[in-house]
Amino acid sequence: MTVSDQSSSRLAALLSSVSVEISSRGHQVAELRDHFAAGTDVTITFLPGDNYRHNVETAAALRRAGYNPVPHIAAREMPSRGALDDFLARARGEADVSRIVLIAGDVAAARGPFKSTRDVCNSGLLEAHEMTSVSVAGHPEGHPYLELPDALQGLEAWRDWGRRTGTRVDIVTQFCFESTPVLQWIAALDRAGVDLPVIVGLAGPATPATLTKFALRCGIGNSMRALRAQIGRFGRLLTDTGPDDVVRGLRCAPAAATAPIAGFHLFPFGGLRKAGDWLRNCDHDPLGLQRAAMSGAGLQNP
Questions:
Q1: For every one of its 302 residues, what pLDDT tens digit does the chain have, with 9 covering 90 and above?
Q2: Under the phi-then-psi rule, with left for phi > 0, alpha for psi from -120 to 50, and beta for the rest, what region is 235?
Q3: How does DSSP classify residue 285?
Q4: Fewest Cβ atoms nearer than 10 Å: which of 129, 214, 255, 297?
Q5: Any idea what the Cα angle at residue 141 is, between residues 138 and 145, rounded to 5°?
Q6: 155 in Cβ contact with 171 (< 8 Å)
Q7: How far apart are CA 92 and CA 163, in angstroms?
Q8: How many angstroms separate the Cα of 173 from the Cα of each of 89, 186, 235?
Q9: Which residues contact 139 (CB under 8 A, 6 or more apart)?
């Protein structure tokens, strides 16, 4: 087996431990049991206007169901230091949360003292409540407000904080529709010396219309062309499109280019059932390696 084959097999194995996302409302916990195994890391969204107590209730329900709850904390949504302290205390005490996803939040103005994720980091509350693992966001197609050098500088600061506090810090990426932006962004991390584990975000199966809606909302850039190309090639306007091309492109890339990848995260835009079905069948395509080779040769998006 070549080094490239070993890398491909390693990435395929990481899919077996993929994490998945649900709403803070908690109504998806029952459905989750039908499609994802107990022990799965399940992130819990924090959308504008969410009440963190609902997030804690959902986290506790996930823990009781045998999952590992990983709540999002939206820095700008926290109205006070006391609210963040209470959120973390409840999450730790009621749901045994030890890993969080820390995001700035989708509101322009902060509701309280935390204008950025770094403000939360500097509060000391993550260490005080024994959060042993913190995931921060990565944007392979560009941060909506920061130029790449500034975004990399922010990730360097998170790397240094993790080393200083003994906290595991990793980067969960925004989803893309082709592998090239992910690989180029990982190379930029390497050049900057940001040696943090990368968890690649994947857009779960959904119709192109649904994927386009979420892509526009999340600021996805040039890789939208890959989605348009798939529609053009196969006429799949109403047929679900999954992240197969992204996974194949990563699997055929040189081992060094994908070495920082430590996992995958599914955004189930088409629902948990479709995401679970895709996960069970994603490595059973007999043409997968052939398509990966075509992708590696630059033929992914004709």
A1: 565 667 889 999 999 999 999 999 889 999 999 999 999 999 999 988 899 999 999 999 999 999 999 999 999 999 999 999 999 999 999 999 999 999 998 787 899 999 999 999 999 999 999 999 999 999 999 887 889 999 999 999 999 999 999 999 999 999 998 999 999 999 999 999 999 999 999 999 988 777 777 666 665 666 555 555 555 544 554 567 889 999 999 999 999 999 999 999 999 999 999 999 999 988 644 344 444 444 333 333 32
A2: left
A3: -
A4: 297
A5: 70
A6: yes
A7: 22
A8: 27, 10, 29
A9: 151, 173, 174, 185, 219
170 DSSP assignment: E
Lookup: tokens for 48? 């504008």
Interacting residues of 28 by C-beta distance below 8 A, sequence separation 6+: 22, 272
Tell me how far apart the alpha carbons of residues 39 and 19 are, in angstroms, rounded to a whole number.
Answer: 10
